[in-house]
Every structure is written in C-alpha cells, then in structure tokens.
Give the backbone structure.
Amino acid sequence: MARKKIFNDPVYGFISVPYGIIFDLIEHPYFQRLRRIKQTSLSHYVYPGALHTRFHHALGAFHLMTQAIEVLNGKGAGITEEEAQAASIAILLHDIGHGPFSHTLENALIRVPHERLSEWFMEKLNEEFQGQLELAIRIFQDKYPKKFLHQLVSSQLDMDRMDYLTRDSFFTGVYEGVIGYDRIIKMLAVHDNELVVEEKGIYSIEKFLIARRLMYWQVYLHKTVLAAEHMLVQVLRRARELALLGIPVPCPENLQFFISHEVREDQFVQDRDHLLARFASLDDYDILSALKAWMSHPDRCLSYLSQGLIHRRLFKLELSSQPFGEDYVSTRAAKVLQWWQGPESELSYFFLKGMESNSAYNTAQEEIKILFKNGEARPMSLSTDYELHSKIVTKYYLAYPKITGG
Amino acid sequence: MARKKIFNDPVYGFISVPYGIIFDLIEHPYFQRLRRIKQTSLSHYVYPGALHTRFHHALGAFHLMTQAIEVLNGKGAGITEEEAQAASIAILLHDIGHGPFSHTLENALIRVPHERLSEWFMEKLNEEFQGQLELAIRIFQDKYPKKFLHQLVSSQLDMDRMDYLTRDSFFTGVYEGVIGYDRIIKMLAVHDNELVVEEKGIYSIEKFLIARRLMYWQVYLHKTVLAAEHMLVQVLRRARELALLGIPVPCPENLQFFISHEVREDQFVQDRDHLLARFASLDDYDILSALKAWMSHPDRCLSYLSQGLIHRRLFKLELSSQPFGEDYVSTRAAKVLQWWQGPESELSYFFLKGMESNSAYNTAQEEIKILFKNGEARPMSLSTDYELHSKIVTKYYLAYPKITGG
Amino acid sequence: MARKKIFNDPVYGFISVPYGIIFDLIEHPYFQRLRRIKQTSLSHYVYPGALHTRFHHALGAFHLMTQAIEVLNGKGAGITEEEAQAASIAILLHDIGHGPFSHTLENALIRVPHERLSEWFMEKLNEEFQGQLELAIRIFQDKYPKKFLHQLVSSQLDMDRMDYLTRDSFFTGVYEGVIGYDRIIKMLAVHDNELVVEEKGIYSIEKFLIARRLMYWQVYLHKTVLAAEHMLVQVLRRARELALLGIPVPCPENLQFFISHEVREDQFVQDRDHLLARFASLDDYDILSALKAWMSHPDRCLSYLSQGLIHRRLFKLELSSQPFGEDYVSTRAAKVLQWWQGPESELSYFFLKGMESNSAYNTAQEEIKILFKNGEARPMSLSTDYELHSKIVTKYYLAYPKITGG
Amino acid sequence: MARKKIFNDPVYGFISVPYGIIFDLIEHPYFQRLRRIKQTSLSHYVYPGALHTRFHHALGAFHLMTQAIEVLNGKGAGITEEEAQAASIAILLHDIGHGPFSHTLENALIRVPHERLSEWFMEKLNEEFQGQLELAIRIFQDKYPKKFLHQLVSSQLDMDRMDYLTRDSFFTGVYEGVIGYDRIIKMLAVHDNELVVEEKGIYSIEKFLIARRLMYWQVYLHKTVLAAEHMLVQVLRRARELALLGIPVPCPENLQFFISHEVREDQFVQDRDHLLARFASLDDYDILSALKAWMSHPDRCLSYLSQGLIHRRLFKLELSSQPFGEDYVSTRAAKVLQWWQGPESELSYFFLKGMESNSAYNTAQEEIKILFKNGEARPMSLSTDYELHSKIVTKYYLAYPKITGG
C-alpha cells in the first residue's frame, strides 16, 4: 500500500488520496479552480453554512468511490487496479466542467451543458497526462464494457449523489436530508454487469429517495434560493444586452469575453483550446466582483439587481401547486411596473413567471435494481411494497421585488 | 427560574429537570424501576448498543415536552404553568406501567394493557402526592378541555414518538431512523384547540413517517429480534404450564406469583394495591435470572429455550410478503419435530407461525393536521402531493430452531 | 477478501468481522457472557446512557485494531495475516476475564486479577479451538518478538484505551472526553520494533491525555459513582460474612459458591476447569437479582444497603484534596452510628474512608514514544513543550448515608 | 415571547433571532458584508471545509450569548431585558470592523486595529438607529458597571471564543478542537460582579484551554496556512509599492484606494464617514479578484505571488522551536536569490523569517475565576491541581518557494 495524502473532511473525517496521477490531478489548476465554485450556488443566502465547494464535493465522491470499489471487490466483482484508478479519476473529474455558480448560470454564460465541458476538460488533461485518462474517459462516457463502473459515476445511485446529498445536508444543517450512504455502499453488488443493491438495503433506498426529495424542496428549490438565483440570471442577461449595445459593463476580462460573445457548442469545438483556457479562468469570484462593480453602474436595471444581490434584498417568490391565473399575473405585473417607473421592456428583469419540477424517483430513467436472495434482480419499483414517487411534482412561481404596499 | 437538576444525555446533551414534584417523581422507586427495563426489549441482540431504558426515554420525552410548550406559548397558546407541569408529568409517566421487556411480554405476564397499568400507577402516585397529579391524569385520559395537551402526550405526533424514534435510532446506530424532532417541534402550533404543524414543516413530517416505517422493519420487526422475542414468550408460556402442573420453576418470588396466577384486569381492580406492589417489583433482571436458572431445568423445553436465549442461539425466522403454503409449513414442521424427538404437543414451543404488520401512516386514526398560511388546517393526507402510506403492510413468518441439514 | 459479518455500532457506524475463528469466538458463550457485563459498572446511576457492555467494547477495540494494522502495514510494518489475526484475537479477548461489575467487584468475588482470568479463559478456548490461539496468547503475554503487537493490545496507547475512552464518552454523553482516535491511529508507526506516534500527532496525544484525565474525574471517579460502587462492595462483604456464619443469603447458585468460598489464585490453578465454569456463568444479572432478593432480608445491614442500591438512595460522598482531620472523621462517624442504632461493629458498612488517585500520564510506566522527521524516537515527556502531568493526583473521601439533619 | 426569525446552523441546529433591532442590524449592509469575509482566512487551503464566514460566527456568538444570559438569570443575576439586548448587540457586532481576510491583512490594508474599526461601525450604526446602540457600546467598551456583561463579550471566557473554537473545529473537521461550550455555559455564574465558573466546571475549563492550544498549532498556525497567509501579505505589500511608484495595479476601486493610501488611525478619525464607507465595501472577493487580475501583471514579483496563491503553489515553511542559525539562513537565502534571478531587493518577498507564539493560558491577562462551593472565587491558576500552561511557546519559521533541488 502506497503512502497517501490525507485531507481533513468534516463529513467523513479523513479522505486519503494516493500519490500519483490522482494527487497530480488534484494539484492541477483546473481542479484547484473548483475551490472557487460553491457547490450549491446561492443557497447559502438561506443556509449560511452552505459555502462548500465543488472541490470538496469531488474529493468526497472520490472517497466514496474508493469504498464502493472495496466493497464490490469483497463480493468478487474483480475490479482491477487499473479500472479502480480510472473509475476514481472519472468521479473526481465528473464536475470539472462546471462554471461559476454551477447550475444557476449554466447556459447563461455559455450555451454548452456542463457534462460536455467536463469531457473537454478530461480530453485536455488526457493530452497533458500522456493518455493516462483514456480508460477514465471511456468509463465516464459509458463506452467501457463493465457498465457498472459507469453506474458508479453516473446513475440514480452514483457516488455523485451519495456525496452531494450527504455533504449538502451537512453544510446546510438540514439534517433531515442525511442518507445512509455507508449502509447503501455496503449493500452494493454487481449482477449481470450492473450495479445493484442487496435486498437488505431496500429501506435505505426508500429513505435515500425521500431524503433527496426533501433536499430538493427544502434546499435546492427553496423559495428564497430560487429568488436569488433568478436575480443572478437576470443580472447577467442585462449585462449581456448592454454589452451587445456597446455599453461598457466593467468586469474581469474573461467574464467580459463570455458576456460579449454567445459561445455555442459548435464554436467551442472549433476553437477548443482557446475557449477552454478562457472558461477555465472563471469562477464565482468573477461574478461577485462584477456585481460589486455594477452596483454603481448608470444602468438602473443593472445596478438595482446587483445591489439587491449584494445586500441580500431579494425578490419575493410566490409558490403554488396550481398555475397562476392570468388576471392575478397581470395585476401583479402592473403593480411592479408602476413601482419601477421605467419602460415596459424592462419588466422582464423584475417580474418572473415559471415553474420547477421534481420527482422523488424517476422510473423513466434506468431504474435502481434490487438483488434478492434467490439471485434475481428486479427494478426498485417492482421490489418495494412502498409507493414509489415517480410522479413529477410541479410548482409554479412568480418572483418580483418586495414592494412596500404591494 | 428555579434551579434545576441536570441529567447528561448523549442524545440531547443535557436535560434540565426542575426541583419539586417532577424531580420527586423521578426519585420514586416506581420511576427508578424503569432503569431496569430496556426500551427496546431484545433488539440489542442485533444492535448491541440498544440497551437504553424506559427511564431514559421518559426523561427524553419530558425534555421534548418542555421545548414544545415553550414553542407553543411563543405562538400564543397560553399554556399556564400549572398545565405545563401537568402535561410534563403525564409524559414522564406515560410508560410507567410497562413491565419486564415491555411490549414483548405484555399479556404474557399479566392480562392488562400497559396503558391501564400506567393509569393505576398514576392514581397510586396521586394518592401519595396528595392529589397533585389530578390534572396530569385528566390530560393523560383526554378528559381535559385543552385537547392539544393530550395530543402532545398521545397522538400520531406526540413527544413519545419524537423521543423513541430519535433515541432508538441513536442507540441502535441506525442513523437512517433519525428524524428532525427539533424542526418538527419548532413547527408545532395550536389551531382550534388541536395540535397542528405549520405548512413549512410538511417535508419534515413526510420524513418522520418514512423514518418511522424504516425503524419498524429494520429494528422493531427485524427477523432476529422477532425470533428472540418469540422465544422469550414461549419460555414464559412453558414455565407457566409447568407451574400449573405443580412442577417447580424456580425464579424470584414476585415473578413466581405472576407465573402461577393469570391475573386479569377485573382481579387487578379488586386487589389493586397488593397486585401493583408485586408488579412494581418486576423488571428485566427477574426474567434474565429466571432464564439463567432454567438453563439447567429438568424440563427439556424450558432448558432448551433458556439456553438458546442466554447463549444467543436463536431461532431462524423466515419472512415473506405472502402467507406460507400449507405443504411447506407441514413439511417444515415435520422436520422440526423429527429433530426434537419429543411429543408433538411440544412442537408449538419450537415452531411458530404468525404475521406482523405496520403502516407508515394511519389515516384510520386521528390524522396529523397541517396548518396553511391562509389559516386553514387540513389532514396530512390531503395536504401533501406525496402518496401517504396508509396501506397496512403485512409480513408472514415462520420461526424454528436452526437445525443442521434442515 | 472474505465476506464479513457486520455489526451496527453507534460509535463507529459499522464493525466488520470476518467469518472464521474471530466470528466463532464471538459466538462462544464465554464471549456472549460479556453482553451481560456493563462496561462502566454503576456509572449509569449518574450517566443514564452508560449501559454499554464489555461485549460492545471488545468489538470496538477489535475494530480499531483492524484499522491500526492496516495503517501500520501501509507504512511497511509487514504484519503477516497470521499475526494480524492473532493480535485481533488478543484484543477481542483482553477483557474476557472480567466478572460482574468489572473493576468494582474485582477481588470482592474472587481474589484473582482479571488479567489472570483472561489468560485462563484464553487457554481454555485455545484447547477448544485446537491450538489456534497460541500466537494470540503469546502476543497478549508479551512473549512474541514483535513487541509492537503487544503494545497495540496493552500499553499507554493501546486499542483498549482508544475504544473505552471513545465509547464511554459517547454513551455517557460527556463529549468532552472525546479523543481523536482516528487521527491517532493514522499517526501510528513502528520504530525499532516499538509502537510510536509520528510527530504530527503530538497535539492529538496531549489532547488524548487530558481527555483521559477528564473522564477519570468526571465519570469513573465521580462522587456519586464512587458512592454507589462502595455500597456494592459493602453489600457483598456483608453477604459473605453472613454466609460464613451460616446465615442463608439466597442468590443464584454460582454466586452463592463464590460468596461462601474465598477462592484464591493457587486454588484456581488447581481446580481450573471447575472454577472457570462457575465463574463463566456469573454476570451483572446475578448481583442485581441477589440485591433485589436481599431487600427483604432479615439482616438490617444487608437489606438497608440492597434497598439503597435498588432505589438509588445512595451514600453522600465528601471529596477533598486534603486528608480529613481525625476530629472531623470521628464526629461524623459518631453521628452515623447514632443514626444507625446498631452495634459499632456494623459501622464499617456505612462509614467509609479512603482515597482515589490518578495521573494524567504515567512516566513510571513505559512511555509513549514520538517519532520525529529526522528518524529519531523520543519519549513523550521529552517531546512536548507542554508540561506532562505525571504527578499523581490523590483525592480523599468519606462516604456515609445521607442522614436528615446530619 | 415574540416571534423569531430562525437560521439553520449545522453547528447548533437552529439559531433564533428576535425581530426588531437585532434582526434589523443583521439585515444591514454592514453586517451582510460579513458574509463575504471568511472566518479563518486561508486555512481552507489546508482544511477545505473551513469556508465559514464572520457572518455565521457572529450569529453563533449571539446564540451562545442568549443561552448564557438565560443561565445567569436562572441563578439570579438579574440581567434586565434592556441589558440582555445590549449585550446581544455587542457580541453580534464585536467583529464588524474586520476587513478582508481578517487578521491576515489587519494592518496591511489600513493601520488601524479591527477593534477600533468595530467601534466606529457601531457608532455609525448608533446614529442610523437613533441611539439604540448606546448601552451596547458601553458594554463593548467596558464602561458599564455590570462588568460581567463585558466579560461575556470579551475575556478569556467570552462567547466569541466559545463560538469560534466550536465553529472552527466543526468546519475544519479537527474534532479534537471541540470544546464543551454547553457545559461551560451551564456552569457560568456571577460573583462580585464578575463572570465566574462553578467548581464543577473546572475540568471543562482545562479541556477548553487544551483544545484552544491544539487549534492554534494545528489550524491557525499550521505551516501551510502560515505560508499562504505570508504570501498574501507580501503580494499586497508589493502592490502597494508598485502603486506608490505610479505603476498601475488594476483592482476594484476601493481596494485601489487603500493600496495607494496608507490610512492611519488619526486620518480615519478626521474623515470617518468617507473612509468607513470605502472600507465597508471591501471583502475577500476584492482581494481574490485582484489576485486573479495580477496573475498576468508585468511585474514578476506580483504575478509570481498571485499565481502561487491562486493555483495553490505555496511556499515551504520550516518550523523550529529554536531560532535558525545565521549560516543556515544566509545559505538558504542565497539559494532562493539564485533561483529567482532578480535583484536582491526583491528577496524579501520570497524569503521570510519570523516567529509565532501562543500560550495555552494567559495569567498575565485577567484570569478565569472559579467559584467554589464555600462561596469563594479563586483564579484558575490557583484552583486546579493541573499545571496551567501560561508559558508562551514560540516557534521560529523560514518561508520560501519550493525550489526543485533546493
């Protein structure tokens, strides 16, 4: 057993990382950048402890991968050392393509999903590391025959979810989101080349699904968090519009670039190295310092939204399980417009209508499989006497400034 | 604020108890007896940490009652000091009527439910304390106009459940059973004289229901726990039969009394003081020392079962969501009988057939009510977009010795 | 890697035990007996959660041993599988010789230290398991050349202490006793065939020593705990005296035997199998059921002390850092005697004078060694800029019943 | 009891804040700014979880203040509601004067200690809130007769320390730094107008002192943390020098101002409102975005240090309990200079020599006092049989880039 680098982690105690390529990847500026991207965007406006980063999450998911591989090999899965390392690299880098404020600004800065960006980062790192990431990339892309290795990286039961639910509930203090990650991992097995859970773990899976549902509505889709995140999207939309009109919106150079150019996937492919270098320099700090600068910008929209975010004067968000009536919406919109005393064209920055949805368990996707003692594996939805919640729950919202008397 | 006695509790940190009647009740031998009755009977055979007692549980439920009352009064519930003390006494004594091994031996030692016994204990204490428990008894019996006080003591959302789920998951180490008791308590309110939960707490209630379900199947109705508890019931049944035949079954005197007499509720009422004094002397230690003595008893049944319990050589328990087929049962029974090489009349001590059932949420009982922002309160089953699990899940079992080759 | 039996443990989460001899030893009645011996005797009278057993402690120490061996082998210690198993057995069985109420009644029931009894149990088990415990016994007795293996089992830094401090602070709820067991274990190394701690762990060792000191004075030597334990010793002393006078003291047979006979080490050696069988049947339950029976014994001393223990009416214990003055002692004794209204010869059951002492760190014993980066190992007392507390702190006590007006 | 705003806190569960001035102060931009200042500067480079902010710390200290006041009033301290509110405001704002990276850049940006700045912020807020902070300011400045209220805010046992040790150990994951804050608070009392600890809490105080010592050496003065913080100081020193030479160092405007002007206390007093407004706009984000911009600055020193910090290529730091010999230092310096290949005048940015010191307990300051049962209060150093560690431990360091072959 080789000597290892030890990281302190309040969640798991210690995380041991072997020296060699894994450690070298962690030291790489691409990975260090994740120290400056918060895992849960603006949810710290509601849960002040939630300042943990994608860096820490990636380390945590790596840690769970190590445990999962040990458990599976203890049950005869026969994962080789090379495969183990590749799966570990794949989970370590699964989020490397995230930009500032992760999902919140996905598509707002660049019209490319973060998974594609993660692949490009991995390809670039593969070049730098002389092809040592080949196998990791195949696993990440689900092109490796041992399908269960991909499922450890990405599936309804992957190490990504195990870590983020555990970590987010820890740092928010929403202890009800705690899942039995250690028990679930101990119950993992491989059956017909797929990742399955032993029968004894079925209650832990139910609990995991309900905890995930709770985290969605209580944290990720919390009214105030949604309000703040929508404001952030609007402020960038406004900055982009001003920039396209030639009005200066001072901000760090690389952010400026993505605000002035709408980069799409095909363009990225053609000019990968240049665009990746620019994108790799961005993090939460660029956005925040732009907001701080824009607080005194002459454009009323831009300064109003920037001040609101910095001073935490957030929109009110109405949430309903029914769509809002047209009358209600137009009355409300009129009030906001009257308060704003600006052109109607600006209303869209201050008056947002939309919906969010979530299902506790998605039977449309590849299902979680349960392995019974008789050797048979069945989908979760056919294994439990419990009603699985595949129904998609949708909630409708209106968001707008808290206007006195409004 | 009066000075208080502080108890250390690994679950809540510290529990403060005011000097006065509450402290005096805790010092009473009836309450001290609960130190010798384990909260979760034989579940420590599977979860070795689960040795906590009804004494600790009662203190914990009292602690939560104190918090709940503070929260409710903060929302204007207007609970007087006298009512607060009475509700605290009611929760402190709600389980005082439990005997050795609690639910496992309920009806096996005495044909009276523990709630009736709790009432008799309270009446007796009320006499000793010159009527100071009057109000507590009325609340316990739901005869006090402020119904919500009774609901804090006994309902689908009472402080009893809050504590036992929290405490049992803590001491078993089944952390997935953890509930957000502190959040739920912070969300409690009174509406139309009833205990309700504010809308924001709805996900915590869902989580609470699923955690309770998990604890049932994973701990309280765990196969090995059931097997051990069934053995314990059989050993006492056998002892009673031998006693009725005049065969000596040496054990502590008061246990002897209840083994030789089948005391029913009407008899208890007639001879309350005498029988209560006898019953109040019983605890887990009497049963255990009887088992140890019976390990060398000449009766094969008695000694076999006693040895099995002491040395933890427990029955195998088959669990199924379907009733067992008659053929399967009779074949299995024949094997057990052949192994036992005793009269067929003894088979019933070694071959048990039965079922256990549980529902995550009982809509047949008085429902949990949710208070919405518009001031309306609705039953939980009509408040959530979640499928509540009122369905009763039944599991069938067969239990019998692990016979080599069987 | 072989399949393993998993135990839930609220302290470490899960403890994995390999099937084979380790599991078989755990299943043995000798080891199962430890389920009925509390780890911290009567400290649950002050800390109601402290009901954990020697069974759980032994499993926990075994768990830490597994981790320590993995760490040491990761640093090249070259522990073979056979040695690893033997060291694991040695730690698993290190306390197997403890009797009812462990240290409290050590010497009160039988005049043999528990370590000797542990050895005899191991020898007996070695016979039953056809010599498979040879190596474990050599390690336990420090007769194996790799001295560091013995130090893992017994030294100032052994897995016994790591577990009991961690476990006792967990179950008492005295969280200040928490030690960084995982960090200390990660810092262990082997140097010159001895167990050492790497330099980086020096603050963890300081913290470990202070936590241990705190646990001694706050838990193990807590005034009320000492009072209860002294009462327990006296009640057995009285029972023995009565028995020697031919007065019946009803209690379980094997306890009766040890009360009527003062068994010494030489007798034990001569009649080992018989005496071991008797001793192996004893546990906390025998003592408790004896106390319950003796509550109504005609002997006033015996019944008074038994009632006091069962109803938790404990002696008052005065603690002082100075010896008590003779005048004070005799005045106090006279008051107790006057209250008792019995012969002066009985005073010694009710009036106890003595002292307890403890040092945070014992430099007289083999010291903890610190390994510096330059490859040198030095004793802890020469490694820290911190004042180590080798000074023995002694406290003097008087214990006697709480007499009204006394 | 008024309704309260509830904050989730992973450390204490929930923090309740009364609506009114306390809540309004939290909503003020000055206080919201603390969301952007990390509590432990760059220690997250070693402990990736340590991203918690001064905002969260201030809320936490406020929470403990609420508990302490309740305990003290329960013992008859007679703190009025007005005093309670004032003490709560004082603790809430005690760190309001901290600037970016707190202690690390104290004096580097502005030559005024943060306590003075806190006072100015409070005075300014007192104006805005029409004098409602008068009493809070008097307590903060120790000008209020009830001296113990000041001691709750600032002393060797204040709520500031209670929270930061608890919180920092939580977020770093250095669980050995955990203190028994709840027990210590329960043991607080007032004696002769001073804050004291009851005798029973003496071991908790010892433990608190040792935990604090451990946190200093293991976290706050950790080698790598010190290295990073020294680099940060140097990069700002360099920026300031360049600015004074008229070389542009692009960065946010208000940061620019403090880099180009060395503001001293007397200047601040004269131009308070203007300078406070500028200072109040600064936070960690300004420094980070400056560093990111400076990574490509033409000045080699500035860009080298900035890149090092952003990419976490940190100096090596040698630590020793002895001062380094002159020969060693000059040889080492020569190597660094040779590697740098720049003018000797630049060496001071890359080669740092200094010392750090800490004492576990400071008897020179006002001591912690212990209240004995006989009503006497004595200083901690005369109350414990334990050796208190008032000795100041000094460690010497050299810091410089990790040069290959160096």
